[in-house]
Design a protein that fits this description.
The protein is 34% helix and 4% strand. It has 22 helices and six strands. The longest helix is centred in the last third of the chain and has 22 residues. It starts with a helix and ends with a strand.
Length: 498
């Protein structure tokens, strides 16, 4: 009788065990070899229609999804289970088969064949691959980011937002830009190029306490080039709430034997990392500008970087009224806490173009998208496109005058043109003038970032090259009217050191 009763109890509890087997057991939700079966899509909505979106709490994830092209596609609706896998064993407990479809390759596998060449292109590397001669466009989706679509896109609402469009038109997203396309930077050199010329290298660099790489992350067979993608500055598509936290920047170069260390400027640390430059004139002599390309932070924070050639007997300290380097800090009230780079370059409605000035096809300034920031300190009459263009031309013309002295088309004290062939043989001050003559090409905004510093570098270079001595005055020829205006020269073109 006891045995019979036990048998009945076992018979009754067995179905319960079978029912519970799919909930919380080790074989549920993709742990076995058979993929979970699909259920009606309405089953997903029963729970997830109430799941609040993390970015916009005013809507639910399901509401965003039903408004997206995944749902409204005229050809075929993409359901929850097309991305996440069958839901027959899910029941709200534990992860579904593909809790993160992107990391599992679901997004890329589906979209791969419809992506344009800016997004994805195959550039295989051969066994005789030459990084220096591999000049082709970069891609948003390099080999390292094929399963990382969500670092730029919200999969529940994948349509690109305004930030995506603005970024694609910026220098950071320009796939044909020299900073991404000129070399295959992940192969080029021994790794020191990767922090600023690839997204992967940038993330590795800022996450390692600014340790200069001694090896690249390149792998044989990968010929793709990387731009600076969303993931470099943001940890995922929740952009405003996922800004990558970067410590106060330590530059790649030194000054007087000590590492160049910048103060912390909040989100602007992301910008300073690469725009502080690659060296200064204490670095080994070079035919190219030793501050490297676009060293805006190098001129802005000149007291730390010393990015231009500073003549030994001259002072390059900032004027007491100079506060551009303090914008976006408590030292300049009502400018926020994001530091000068973010505050000045991302204040417009098209923030991810990073543009403080718009220009026409000739390079002339036609607009000031972030003018409101300037007006916190400067009068309206000063901050106009026309006035900024006058200042820009003064900066450009002064450099052209210096180039004429360096090239000996206006006779210099050496009576020799300084070129890439003999730059290493001339005296240090002449070499310094050769370096400073490249300033405007490499740091196009120095006349606004730090105008006095830029003026002093160019003035002292001209002052030295005309007679091999510092007289603290220069004569600017009549053919350089904007340079005369920039320095406040008299009617004869004589200007004094700023």
């Amino acid at each position: 009788m006891r045995i019979r009763r036990l048998a009945i109890m076992l018979f009754c509890t067995l179905p319960m065990a079978v029912l519970m087997y799919g909930c919380g057991s080790s074989s549920k939700e993709g742990s076995g070899t058979t993929a979970p079966a699909r259920v009606a899509e309405t089953s997903c909505a029963q729970c997830h229609a109430q799941s609040v979106d993390k970015i916009d709490p005013s809507v639910t994830i399901y509401t965003k999804y039903t408004a997206s092209k995944h749902f409204t596609n005229n050809v075929n609706t993409v359901g929850c289970q097309d991305c996440h896998g069958g839901g027959s064993q899910h029941n709200g407990i534990g992860p579904i088969q593909y809790a993160n479809p992107d990391a599992s390759g679901q997004c890329f596998a589906c979209h791969k064949n419809s992506l344009d060449s800016k997004h994805y292109a195959v550039y295989p590397a051969s066994t005789t691959y030459n990084a220096a001669s591999s000049k082709h466009n970069a891609q948003y989706v390099s080999t390292n980011y094929q399963n990382s679509c969500s670092s730029c896109h919200d999969s529940h609402q994948p349509k690109p937002g305004q930030e995506h469009k603005d970024w694609a038109e910026s220098g950071h997203g320009d796939v044909s830009g020299a900073g991404w396309a000129y070399y295959d930077f992940k192969f080029y050199g021994t790794g020191e190029c990767t922090p600023c010329h690839t997204s992967t290298g940038f993330i590795n660099y800022v996450s390692s306490g600014f340790s200069i790489p001694t090896a690249t992350f390149a792998t044989p067979g990968d010929g793709t080039h990387e731009v600076l993608t969303c993931k470099a500055c943001h940890t995922d598509y929740n952009f405003k709430n996922r800004i990558r936290n970067v410590a106060a920047v330590k530059a790649m170069y030194t000054y007087n034997g000590a590492p160049v260390q910048f103060s912390s400027y909040g989100a602007s640390n992301l910008c300073i990392t690469c725009h502080s430059g690659r060296g200064n004139t204490q670095t080994a002599k070079s035919t190219r500008f030793q501050g490297h390309h676009a060293p805006a932070a190098g001129t802005l924070f000149n007291s730390s970087a010393h990015v231009g050639y500073e003549f030994a007997t001259k002072s390059y300290g900032n004027a007491t009224s100079f506060i551009h380097d303090k914008i976006g800090t408590a030292a300049v009230p009502n400018t926020g806490t994001s530091g000068p780079c973010v505050t000045c370059h991302m204040a417009s409605s098209n923030s991810h173009k990073f543009s403080a000035a718009t220009k026409n096809s000739t390079g002339a300034i036609t607009g000031l998208p972030t003018q409101t920031v300037c007006l916190k300190c400067h009068p309206v009459a000063f901050v106009t496109p026309a006035n900024m263009e006058v200042l820009r031309l003064g900066y450009i013309e002064t450099a052209e005058l210096l180039k004429a002295y360096v090239g000996n088309t206006i006779p210099n004290y050496l009576a020799v043109a300084i070129t890439s062939s003999n730059y290493n043989t001339v005296a240090d001050n002449a070499y310094g003038a050769f370096q400073n003559a490249m300033l405007t090409a490499e740091e196009q905004g120095a006349f606004t970032h730090n105008s006095v510093y830029a003026k002093r570098l160019l003035f002292d270079s001209i002052d030295w090259m005309d007679n091999g001595a510092f007289n603290n005055t220069i004569t600017i020829p009549a053919g350089y009217p904007n340079a005369r205006t920039w320095f406040g020269a008299n009617a004869s073109g004589v200007a004094t050191r700023p």
